[in-house]
Amino acid sequence: MSASSVSPPVLDRIRIGSAPDSWGVWFPDDEQQVPWQRFLDEVADAGYEWIELGPYGYLPTDPAVLREETARRGLKVSAGTIFTSLHHGPAVWEKTWDHVTQVATLAQQMDASHLVVIPSFWRDDKTAEELEPRELTGQQWRHLTSGMEKLSRRVREEFGLEIAVHPHADTHIDTEEHVERFLDATDSDLVNLCLDTGHYAYCGGDSVKLLRTYGERVNYLHLKQVDPGILADVVKQGTPFGPAVQQGVMCEPPLGVPSLPPVLEAAQGLGVELFAIVEQDMYPCPPDRPLPIARRTRRYLRSCGA
Fold first, then answer.
1. CA atoms of 97 and 54, how far apart (whole Å)
2. Where in the numbering of this chain does the Xylose isomerase-like TIM barrel domain appear (predicted)?
C-alpha cells in the first residue's frame, strides 16, 4: 500500500472546536472585532461543534440568551477563560475570585467542563514595557503554585469545573523549564495544563515531548502553529506578543510548527477524552479573513483523523 493511500489514525478521543480568538477577538468590546452573532454563524458554518466563551462579555452573558443562540446553531461550550496574577499572593485573591465567579457561573450554566487559566503578562502587550521582572522570586513561585491549587479546589467545589492552566508567551509560565517547574510544584489531582501548541513552540517548547513526559497533567489542548521565520525575527528583536501577532507569527496549519498530526496522536494515546480547540491569534484582522481560514483548518484536521 502506498503512503498516500494510508488512512489517517482514528482520533476518537479528540473533540475539535474553535474560539473567538480565531476570529480576531481579544476583548469584550472592540470596534476592530466582528459582532458576536457573526462569530457564532461563521464558526458553525466552518464545521465546528465546540466553542469557548472568549473574553467575558463578548458573547451574551445571559445564559438563557446564549443557550438559545448556540443551540440553534448546533454549538456547545467547552470552557471559559480567566486571567490571574496569583504570584502576587493573598492580596489579589478577592479580586481574582470575583472575576472567576463571573466567568465560571456562565461556563457552568452552559454545561462547560473547563476553565482555562492564563497567568498575567510580565510586559505590556503593546508597548513592550516591562511591568515586572521576567523571573519570579522563590516566594512568588510559592504564591503562584499554592494559589492555583486553592483556585482549582474552589472552582471544582463550587462550580464543578476543572481548571486548565495555559502556558502563554510573555507570562511567567512559558518555557519548558518554567512549565516543568510549575507542574513539579503543584498537586496533580488539582492542577493541570491547557497545552497551547503554538504558545509552547513560540517559547521554545516541544509539545509532543511534553505530552509524552507529562501527559497525565494535560487536560485540555489549544491547537495553534507558529511561523518559524517570523518567530526567529520576533526572538531576535525581543518583540512582545501583541506586535508579534500583528506580524503574523501565528499561522494557519499546516503552514507552521509544530506539526499537528504527531501532537494529536500523542494526545489520543493518553487514553482520555480531550478538547482540542483551534486558536489562531490574529488580532486585529479584516472581518472577512477568519472564515476561509477556519474552513481550511477544519478540513485539514479532518484529514489528520480529527
1. 18
2. 40-243
CATH, residue 38? 3.20.20.150
Residue 47 · residue 75 · CB < 8 Å: no
Pairing of strands 114-119, 76-84: parallel
Enter the C-alpha cell of residue 31. Answer: 470596534
Radius of gyration, alpha carbons of the chain: 18
Grid cell 518559524 — which residue?
A: 228
- Could you report the per-residue pLDDT of 8-25, keeping only the tens digit for each? 788 999 999 999 999 999
Residue 106 lies in a domain: yes
Q: Is residue 165 part of a domain?
A: yes
Identify whether 170 is part of a domain: yes
Helices (H), 176-285: 176-184, 197-202, 207-214, 228-237, 241-246, 260-268
Domains held by the chain: number: 1
For the chain, where are the E strands, in sequence order?
14-18, 50-52, 76-84, 114-119, 162-165, 193-196, 218-223, 225-226, 250-251, 274-278
Q: Supply the range of the domain harboring residue 190.
A: 8-303
